[in-house]
Write a structure and sequence with these properties.
The structure is a single chain. The protein has 747 residues and is α+β, with helices and mostly antiparallel strands. The chain has five domains: 102 residues, Dna Ligase, domain 1 (2-Layer Sandwich), CATH 3.30.1490; 99 residues, 2-Layer Sandwich (D-amino Acid Aminotransferase, Chain A, domain 1); 182 residues, no CATH class; 122 residues, no CATH class; 105 residues, 3-Layer(bba) Sandwich (Glucose Oxidase, domain 1). The protein is 44% helix and 16% strand. A hairpin with a 4-residue loop joins strand 12 and strand 13. Helix 12 runs antiparallel to helix 18 and helix 18 packs parallel to helix 19. The radius of gyration is 30 Å and the shape is globular.
Length: 747
């Protein structure tokens, strides 16, 4: 390779030319008739943002030293060509391209071609497409010859195409897998076959499917391939568009495991989505049938439409054995130890957070602050996130087993109805803590300072690093108290009524199945205790996130970035604190990306394949429940919505459709709240409502848990409630069956 420094102006320096001739002589060896290819290598060429494919000159079948000299200068001069200038401008890049020149011994192929390891249109990685021609590949690139086509299906490598290339199918599959693993994404591979040998000539990212642009902060993991993504669970945790700071922190935990480069949680245009296909594929590879795998996934994550096909990813059993199982074994061992320490973790975490918060605020030196993050705060966050995961692992097995046993005994609908009456029978459930605390302030049982110490970190945007927590907001507590006084709650009476409803339903079950009642009741008690623990750990994880926000704010003060600090990742922030401020040049473009993403309405709950928010918004038939890149959008037309039974009870009323708790002033007593999702920041609104309906959610989501505790009917995880229902519609809610009937549409 001749680097730009080897040129004096436009001419190759004599010293560089002598070195080139010596290397050419070595390459020739005894083969004096060897020929060469002379081609470009630019800094931005074949990058994740642009390919410049065919824009710079390439000289093939060059023989003599004199011809090589001329070819080197031809390639060098092509950087100033009109087509390079136009391509650079179109991609928002500097039109002045500095390039190196590569001189390679040329392969005289029998066959030349390209292989796309993902469908360049749909993004599907389950099928690779190859084109080839006989002889040199320039015929293929120039379009002078119609190519032959073949396909390879993954993970098995099934080949379909001309028989002459069938024998190379295993080599293509190995080459594609290794390049994707090494380079982190789908590739556009140039190859050649000479004799019985397959040669890799060049590979570049498929630039039409770029998942992340660090310069602008644009990220779209739906371009990864033909995956099913869901905002269930994660959409409740992070209900808004994320800044780079928020995503980079949560990604520490979300993507500890990335088999074959597939993230377990992706970033789709600023919003988090769980990779349903990845989890489903892993369950299938462990030997579960499609029906059992789907049932297990739906219990934990959320129900899918009956006719929805779940894309399976090209992950083999060997991938599981060598890449995933070792990590799972370490994680399970860690989770077992963390579960043992959960009570101590819950009790000690507030003091640990207070101590670290003071240490951060006292830091006067940038490098000291960076060290606090790396050695103390980041490990604390990861430990607490893993503890949250461990508490989930302690909860889901008894819940899944109970659900299965009840369904077998009394049917799915009745089992759902019975489970939807179960409440924790615990006055310390963390999801209700902020609401019950308001009543304690008014009764004199708790001081305002104690309330803020316990609950000041909880709010509708508690997991968004860039959003202030209630403890930072003057007047927040006064507003909460004023709202509560409009709809006060007698918690003792409320809990007594909820307990009575469950006991009545359980009594009927016990009479029908006397031999099953006692062991199942023990499982219920175990499950509800685990749920209360899970909620407490969730609260403490949020407390750690509030300390991370303090770290970012302090870093903004020490660096002079202010609130712009939320537009760099934690990795970049550590570099800035240690003196490398190069990433700050990206902040204006990232802020613009964040603003643009924030203007879009919330994306569909389920996304299959490549998602383009601009095309989705422009579609008059767009839906908020499903987006499938493989099929046109079909308008919804229904009078009945189906979701999960969240909390038992039947009620009729008028819909109030709102998108955030800040709009809660519009909510009138006795109305039915309809929204995308809820989290703890919505809890103060629940005493006013007659029922709640959400797009996102499952029987264990915030809306369902709080509604059960307060005895409010709830239907969660409908997917399309906010698309179909509007303020003023009259509906009938059956929380035990998970059904919403539209009785009368508003004018």
């Amino acid at each position: 390779m001749i680097l730009p420094g080897g040129f004096a102006g436009e001419e190759l320096s004599p010293e560089a030319w002598e070195r080139v001739k010596a290397l050419i002589k070595d390459i020739r060896g005894s083969g004096v008739e060897a020929s060469f290819a002379v081609r470009s290598s630019a800094l931005s060429e074949d990058s994740a943002q642009a390919s410049f494919a065919g824009e710079f000159e390439t000289m093939l079948d060059v023989h003599s030293d004199e011809d090589i000299w001329e070819a080197v200068h031809t390639v060098r001069r092509s950087r100033e060509s009109e087509r390079v200038q136009a391509y650079s401008k179109a991609h928002g890049m500097d039109a002045s391209q500095e390039i190196a020149v590569v001189v390679q011994r040329m392969v005289h192929p029998d066959v030349s071609g390209v292989l796309f390891t993902a469908d360049p249109v749909t993004g599907s990685t389950s099928e690779m497409m190859g084109n080839f021609v006989h002889g040199l590949g320039d015929q293929l690139v120039s379009g002078e010859t119609n190519p032959e086509t073949f396909t390879l299906r993954r993970p098995g490598g099934e080949y379909e195409g001309p028989s002459e290339m069938r024998r190379f199918a295993p080599k293509f599959l190995d080459l594609a897998d290794s390049l994707e693993d090494e380079l982190g994404g789908p590739q556009d591979i140039e190859w050649a076959v000479a004799g019985d040998k397959l040669y890799l000539l060049q590979t570049r990212p498929i630039t039409t499917k770029v998942r992340y642009n660090p310069a602008t902060g644009e990220q779209n993991d739906s371009l990864l391939g033909d995956c099913l993504w869901t905002s269930q669970l994660v959409g409740e945790i992070i209900p808004e568009v994320m800044t780079p700071a928020t995503w980079s922190v949560w990604e520490i935990f979300f993507n500890m495991m990335r088999p074959k480069g597939y993230p377990s949680v992706g970033n789709i245009c600023g919003r988090p989505y769980m990779n349903y296909s990845l989890l489903y594929t892993m369950v299938r590879r462990f030997g579960r049938s499609p029906e059992d795998a789907r049932a297990e996934m739906e219990t934990k994550i959320g129900r899918l439409p009956d006719d929805m096909d779940i894309p399976v990813l090209p992950i083999t059993t060997l991938d599981l054995l060598f890449d995933i199982l070792p990590l799972m074994a370490r994680t399970l061992w860690s989770a077992r130890n963390l579960r043992k320490r959960i009570p101590e973790t819950i009790s000690s975490n507030p003091e640990r957070c207070d101590t670290l918060r003071r240490k951060i605020l006292d830091a006067q030196d940038r490098e000291v602050l960076a060290s606090i993050w790396l050695k103390e705060l980041r490990p604390m966050f990861l430990e607490m996130a893993l503890t949250q995961d461990a508490s989930n692992d302690a909860f889901f097995p008894p819940y899944t087993e109970l659900n299965k046993e009840l369904s077998q005994l009394i049917g799915v609908d009745k089992a759902d109805s019975l489970i939807s009456t179960m409440r924790s029978r615990s006055s310390t459930l963390a999801s209700l803590g902020p609401l019950m605390g308001l009543s304690k302030i008014l009764s004199g049982e708790m001081s305002r300072d104690e309330y803020m110490r316990r609950y000041g970190h909880r709010g509708p945007f508690e997991d968004m690093i860039s959003r202030p927590s209630p403890v930072e907001t003057p007047g927040w507590l006064d507003e909460q108290l004023a709202d509560y006084m409009e709809s006060p709650i007698d918690f003792e009476e409320l809990f007594s009524g909820s307990d009575g409803e469950f006991e009545e339903a359980w009594g009927r079950f016990s009479e029908a199945f006397p031999g099953k009642a006692e062991p199942l009741r023990r499982k219920i008690d175990q499950m509800m205790k685990a749920m209360a623990t899970r909620e407490s750990v969730r609260s403490e994880l949020t407390r750690v996130v509030s300390v991370i926000r303090v770290f970012f704010l302090r870093a903004g003060e020490l660096t002079g970035l202010g609130d712009d600090v939320f537009f760099v990742t934690w990795q970049e922030l550590v570099d800035i604190l240690n003196g490398d401020e190069s990433s700050t040049r990206h902040i204006p473009a990232r802020k613009e990306t964040y603003r643009r993403y924030s203007e879009f309405p919330p994306y569909p709950m389920l996304i299959i394949g490549a998602f383009d928010p601009l095309k989705w918004v422009a579609d008059p038939n767009r839906r908020s429940d499903i987006y499938d890149s493989r099929a046109p959008s079909i308008p919804l037309d229904t009078e009945t919505l189906k979701g999960f039974p969240g909390s038992a009870g039947r009620v009729e009323g008028l819909v109030r459709r709102i998108d955030s708790p800040e709009e809660g002033e519009a909510l009138q007593p006795g109305e039915i709240l309809v929204t995308k999702t809820t989290n703890i920041g919505w809890t103060p609104l629940f005493p006013r409502i007659a029922a709640v309906v959400t797009d996102i959610g499952a029987p264990l989501s915030h809306a369902a848990i709080v509604a059960r505790e307060l005895g409010i009917p709830a239907v969660v995880g409908c997917g399309n409630a906010t698309t179909i229902l509007r303020t003023g519609d009259r509906v009938r809610i059956d929380g035990g069956r998970g059904v919403v009937e539209i009785l009368e549409k508003a004018d």
